[in-house]
Amino acid sequence: MNSAFDLDAAVTGAARxxxxxxxxxxxxxxxxxxxxxxxxxxxxxxxxxxxxxxLAAGRESGLSAAxxxxxxxTEVRITAMAEGLRQIVALPDPVGRVVSxxxxxxxxxxxxxxTPIGVIGIIYESRPNVTVDAAGLCLKSGNAVxxxxxxxxxxxxxxxxxxxxxxxxxxxxPRAAITFVDDPDRALVxxxxxxxxxxxxxxxxxxxxxxxxxxxNATIPVIxxxxxxxxxxxDRHVDLEMAVEVALNAKVQRPGTCNAMETxxxxxxxxxxxxxxxxxxxxxxxxxxxxxxxxxxxxTPTMGAAVVPAATADWDTEWLDLNLNVRVVDxxxxxxxxxxxxxxNHSEAILTAxxxxxxxxxxxxxxxxxxxxxxxxxxxxxxxxxxxEIGISTNKLHARGPMxxxxxxTTKYVILGNGQIRK
Amino acid sequence: MNSAFDLDAAVTGAARxxxxxxxxxxxxxxxxxxxxxxxxxxxxxxxxxxxxxxLAAGRESGLSAAxxxxxxxTEVRITAMAEGLRQIVALPDPVGRVVSxxxxxxxxxxxxxxTPIGVIGIIYESRPNVTVDAAGLCLKSGNAVxxxxxxxxxxxxxxxxxxxxxxxxxxxxPRAAITFVDDPDRALVxxxxxxxxxxxxxxxxxxxxxxxxxxxNATIPVIxxxxxxxxxxxDRHVDLEMAVEVALNAKVQRPGTCNAMETxxxxxxxxxxxxxxxxxxxxxxxxxxxxxxxxxxxxTPTMGAAVVPAATADWDTEWLDLNLNVRVVDxxxxxxxxxxxxxxNHSEAILTAxxxxxxxxxxxxxxxxxxxxxxxxxxxxxxxxxxxEIGISTNKLHARGPMxxxxxxTTKYVILGNGQIRK
Lengths: 423, 423
Prior knowledge:
Chain A has helices at 7-22, 26-42, 44-60, 65-71, 75-90, 129-140, 154-171, 187-193, 208-217, 240-252, 271-284, 293-298, 332-342, 355-364, and strands at 98-103, 109-116, 119-124, 144-148, 178-180, 201-205, 230-234, 261-267, 288-291, 307-309, 323-329, 347-351, 369-374, 391-393, 401-403, 409-420.
């Protein structure tokens, strides 16, 4: 640990590097990404050693098994990081893409082109792969990045940062393009959040506490990657077999993700037959239902459901596990109101055979992604065809939903004239 | 003045109104805008009376002539506000516009459509026309707006808000769609800036002090409309006659605006002939040059220039009047470095006949608008063909440069399936 880490100088360096990076060609950026991938492959023993130190310290300080799992850099994960970088090489460079272009009556040609944002600050917890994924996406989009990882992963992150820096050296790009804050002192985070003169955006990735802290203290614009409290609504006219499959998938395919379903709303007219098919399958998958009064009355023991009565707080709880809230509703309106009151504007689905009601749900529900007859689990950069994602933004401004390379750029108006003056 | 103004209830009302407004048809929104315009015309005497009260209070409290001018609601300005609303009627509704659409291999149809942001907070000073312009643009883009004007315009703003509310009533839209904070208590601003659960974005319009205060205290995302410290660089190969006309226009056509030139950079090889043509014209227009050493040496009294030596702080000063910084530079690189160090990333121009140098300037200068051979004064929503603008954003995120109706929307992914589940 370098206890004399000079954050001010480091961020000034990143801002300077951003100017170089903004004009770097795709070929040079891709060469650096390829060198980073090769560097990871070559550094496996050093990475495993560094990670072992973090894991040992984590075990000693009593980190949970889930935390230790997130922290681990296995051979498979190192391969996945290198592979991720190679996939970024294959993605088109968003910089320079023309968004619009036109000729004004006075002869001015006005175009709007994509340019890098500048310096992107990323504050994250535990998973060391974020160091590599975020650095790769920022580099490809021509941005310098300032990475501040969790103290529990400091040795792993430092070893990864060393590999990335060497790749930059090899390709002639400035090292400061990927600036790793090599100091676990928490005071540095507060200092970072106020550097609005040199950092253009802060992306926090982690738990609610971290995100709230960043929102409350940053003078820099923040793009949140916040919680997902996603609903699926089973409408009164619906293919019940399809509804069961989709609802199950939304809950159990990977319950720990932000796009997994936390609450299932079921129209009263189909509740009984739907539950009859759903409950045993859900139970077999380990789902514990937190039911409203009517759900509890319908989900009889003979159905084979695992049910407890829902507490008021449950409707606002992002379980991230196999707990599931279930409510019987009398109408589409009540379902939409429930989602407006308890949802997190992330991913919301209606399962229905009714065209008008599908349209109404799509129009009235305010979320990053609204679905008809599909699992909310599809909210993801790869699934949406954007390629790699830096995360799933719960912001409404700038980037909403899966955030890909293009969302790491801003635009610039380019105006070509031949002496035009304003009258 | 209603001293018991309940901001919490008012903002909750605005959030509820936003849901109605998000689904309102273009026809209904346009009818409300037309009713607002007609209401302004009909309420001229009441508006003039209310404004006279603000002006009298302003004179008494010693407001400057410039402040009083900004505050005044003349007949011409009332006409302009009504006309502005009618122009917004004529603009296309951005809501529902499809940004992208495609079919995924698994049969999911994924589209991205424009939707309103939700609730927009606008904090502004002195000019009462902002009340009407901002309300009109927010309404057309389907957003509810919370308006917090300056205390010096409270009577004018209250009278305008009354007209707008009546137009909403007439067209059956909720009054809370345009929520006017009818209380000059400054503590309410701080309260407003923390309401991130109901307000989606804050747009501050005013002086640097206001903008800094908002950035430092808001937990809500901010879109700044900050200062413009714009440069024009006269390159070594250039049509001198064109350069003189464009530079003069950038400075004197309306010096109090954010897109006016504050600093002129001149390549050493053309400095003498350029100054010879420029200096007398500038002097005739009332321009006072703050020159670097070399400028002062070249701008001899026989040239007829009005020159003072530039102080260090001048290069970072947004004059907003007829003062102009002038520096002689040895190269394009030095010009670009000067702009990177002192510019505000607003509008920057190169005047040149050299294709490669024009391209380099466009690529390397980081600003909302970069120009070749045209006056920076064109950075404006109308001039860029966007129609009315809510302002000129100095943010890099979400909206950069002139901010029109489309920038008052976000997007929503709409996913249509037939039972797709994630494997």
